[in-house]
Design brief:
The chain contains 5 helices and 5 strands. α1 runs antiparallel to α5 and α4 crosses α5. About 2% of the residues have low confidence.
Length: 308
């Protein structure tokens, strides 16, 4: 059985760990609020780009673009598929990283000759240790997603797509669906499906206004799409970062509750052992006093007998 000193040391160790998990919870919540604020500030611009693409397709659904599936609807395109996988730089975030990697592996198994592009130290370490070749690893941290970094990733992927080295591009990331839930998603980035930008006639009345596109709708579309792709990647980076912080908050909150439960059990055990020790000491003192009293009576009786 553990001694009171050992239990006190255990309690101190758990409390020190609890301080760390509390600090990590607060840091994650601060980063989460900051990232969501940055995304909210940039969202209107990319929403406007999406509206302009819809406007083009409202004007002519048959417009040709290398960034869209052909109007005839062929989806099985020959060539290599690229996968942009967004993970975190570290763990302590529950199953956040494992879910993303699992989703990426499932998708990559469906096609031959996949080309892997990785954001995040956790993903780099996993794929390297499992001998899965990485086409390009973006070595900057996943902890600080910015529009400039999204633009770098976008330009590299678009260049490969424009040169025909990638037939399709997928983004595997984590979407924060609410304050608690998040889900690992695999979304096709390129080519786009025309149906994603063609809206019913009874929606978005402002798109019905006729426009003239110079020099052509195709040229305008080919210039708008790269910015839209950058916005999508930036949104995926932010969503993944927010999901990571949310997962870390949940993990740290769970760790705090478990630590408190352990502290309660240790305190109960400590008090039980301490009470037992005190009871034993009282018993020993009482037994000693009784023994001394009995010995004194015996000596007194012997003295009385000798006098007689």
């Amino acid at each position: 059985m553990a001694t009171t000193k050992e239990i006190k040391n255990r309690i101190k160790s758990v409390k020190d760990t609890q301080k760390i998990t509390n600090a990590m919870y607060l840091i994650a919540s601060t980063k989460l609020r900051k990232a969501k604020g940055e995304l909210d500030r940039t969202r209107p611009y990319f929403t406007a780009l999406q509206d302009e693409i819809k406007r083009i397709f409202r004007t002519s659904e048959e417009v040709e673009s290398k960034y869209f599936y052909p109007p005839t609807g062929e989806h099985d395109l020959p060539g290599s598929y690229g996968y942009l996988v967004i993970t975190a730089d570290k763990g302590l975030a529950g199953a956040y990283n494992q879910n993303v990697i699992k989703k990426a592996l499932e998708l990559m198994d469906e096609h031959e000759n996949p080309k892997l592009f990785v954001v995040g130290e956790y993903g780099r370490h996993y794929f390297t240790s499992h001998k899965i070749p990485i086409e390009q690893s973006f070595l900057y941290t996943a902890q600080n997603p910015t529009i400039s970094r999204a633009r770098v990733i976008s330009s590299i992927l678009l260049d490969l797509f424009n040169r025909g080295e990638l037939a399709k591009i997928f983004v595997v990331y984590t979407d924060m669906q609410g304050a608690i839930d998040s889900e690992a998603l695999a979304t096709r980035l390129l080519p786009f499906h025309r149906a994603d930008f063609i809206v019913p006639d009874n929606h978005e009345e402002k798109i019905k206004v006729p426009f003239e596109f110079q020099p052509s709708m195709e040229t305008v579309l080919d210039n708008v799409v790269p910015s839209y792709v950058t916005g999508f990647i930036y949104s995926a980076l932010i969503d993944s970062f927010c999901s990571e912080q949310n997962a870390r908050m949940n993990a740290m909150d769970s760790a705090n509750r478990n630590a408190q439960k352990l502290l309660d059990e240790l305190s109960l055990q400590y008090n039980h052992i301490r009470q037992g020790t005190i009871t034993q000491e009282i018993t020993e003192v009482a037994a000693g006093a009784k023994s001394m009293k009995r010995k004194a009576n015996q000596n007194l009786n012997k003295g009385g007998a000798a006098t007689s």
